[in-house]
Design brief:
The protein is an alpha+beta fold. It has 14 helices and 42 strands. The chain has 4 domains: 148 residues, no CATH class; 103 residues, no CATH class; 81 residues, no CATH class; 320 residues, Rossmann fold (3-Layer(aba) Sandwich), CATH 3.40.50. Pfam families: FAINT (PF04385), Hydrolase_4 (PF12146).
Amino acid sequence: MGDLTLDISSITSNEFHVERLTAYYIPILKIKPNYSKFIQKVVNGSTTLWKSTSGKKCVYLSLVLDNKQPLMLKLDVVESKEDSTDPKGEETLSSPRSTHSTTPIHSLANSARSIHYDGALAQESIYIDVRRSKVISDHLFFEAFHKMVSKHITYYSVSLNISGSNNETMFYNVNRHSYSVYVPTPGYALTKVKDGLSTIWKGGSATCTHVTVYFNGLRPVLVGLWVKNGSSQKPLYFRKKSRWSQINEDEYARKLSFYGLSRSTLEICTVDINNTNDERLCINSLSSLQAKVTRFTPLPGCVVKRVMDGKTTIWDSVCDDKCVYIWLYSRGDTQSTIYLLVHGHSGRKVLYYAKNVGGKWNSVDSYKHISILTTQSILTTSALSGVQSILDARSIHETVYAHSTFKPKIVMGSFINSKGLSIKTYECRVQESKGRIVLVHGAWGYFGSIFLRWNVEWNNKHFGYTPIEHCNSFDMSTYSHIFKDSENALEALPQCQYEGSLVEALNDLGYSVYAIDLQSMGRSESVTDTRFYVEDFNDFARDVAQYVEIVKGKGCKECHLIGFSMGGNIVLRAAMEYKKATGDVITDSVICIGGMYNIESQLDTMIKRLGIRLSHGARYLVPKMVNMFEDYKCFGKSNDSFMWYNDPFTYDRNLAVRTVFELFKAARELDLQQYPDVLPTLFIHSIGDPMCSIQGARNVSKQLEGNAKLVELEGDCHNIVASHFVSNLTPILRDWLMHK
């Protein structure tokens, strides 16, 4: 066994396995030696960065890039003992060591062996600043990475006009008789405050996190800002005479008194969850069948100290605690559960409550909360169309999960697609399974963000819910999982959890679950540096067909393919690609949930319709240019969207012009003439889906009439695979799978 020297300036040797990961839009190379070898020296050209001493060898290395140049290194080092601690070869269904294959789909085999090193065995981690060729502390490493993340997750620098109109996506805004408050939403850096054409403040490298404007009548006379520069914040004050000028705090206080204004804009609030018109809160809701989720975010100045259900108290503040978010789930009049995000000097907490049959709210743990979410009530004929032939009525409270009986391991692997890209895969097996189910996610997301459940407690601990209260500090454990060498997705993706997810539901039905991150999304590689970018939409379908062949390749009894949203379009195309290559059906059945077959509702303005016309030519001239006609994103109106924003692997920006063109083309030109007429296909779709119109599902299912079934669910939610609605899907999926 020989030891290796790794030159990070030119990694060309086949002696290393290199995984190209993108987290928070930051490129990271994760490097392991092949063939049970170790790294004994790391160099950057002629400069030695690290060399083995005292028998210690590097088994795993993470290289952070900045503008394609090496910036920082993290090395996992163990003490070398050839007789006992060599990395072991482990074979998995989707081996991370799979080699590039361009063979036809039907002849693909994945027999390469994977060298697995358990990062938990590392005796130490070494951190190196590559540009200074210097060993640094773990704190400095993660602090530098945190600064990169903060830069990369900011979409735009924006300005605020206190006397004009502002984009409500970019700001929280509260207007009262004598004052207005503005706070930028996540992703937007407020760098300029103006009054019409007059500039009040311009930040340069600093950003403003909070603006209070005081009025004398209708005329703005005073402005108070909180300005952040690096990790420090300070207040700035301005007064208007003939023009705006900066003043000190004492003069600011005197002028407030002169105008008869109160400096405090805070109001101690009690929230009644039955009042969905409270102007002090940002309130939005989603529904699917009888299940409804309502989300309450206090607006600036609203300090929630009590949460009520009519005259019944759910939660009362203790000491300085305040509730910064309320998430309410109800199913008719029979079931209700709630979680609150509570912040105070004692820290951040997630509190769970459930309503009993007598109407009393009791404190519960997270598992009880999830159990209520995953209890299935009777599905009424008025709420459910097209399902009676495949679904019998169920008992009133049928639990569809067994949370405590199965502790999973979701194994990550990869395969190399026809373009030479590494496609990340996931496996969650059950013993004595009835068969295998392959999941294909939709746009902007990846396996974890779509098919697992958000881990509310982990996210609250590391990010809080701070679209209003901006957090200056960071914890190294917020990012450590990105650099961890683990094949268990539940360790690599701590922001997500298994309990309450669609994956758990399918496991509980007796099926092993397999999934991929589509190319350029999640943890998979891309043909360019641009994420969520595809040159040909059918490339997605070919990858899925290739992966299904891998999944089926080891004595599979029964196999089904499920696609959500964009994935619902992809799986139909994959079935046709597979038939073209093999002459056979891809799986025993195909299931499309909220499929992307009609997205014309997204072209709701003339400018957007013009944009899609221009994309026909722009896709050749400037394919990677950001689509200027897309709506601005808002990730501060709910904790669900805030967790999405903070996930390192979701895509939360405007799309590239080429991607926009390919999405609309895929929806408009889905030609099913070559679709296997013997392949059972199920469509499940919300009647009021705001993203992908149900008319598309109706049209597609009609084209496949004879061996296709459409189930229409009453409700206005697109993401019906989310944990709080997946219990509506479970009985439908169970009955379909039982009869196929």
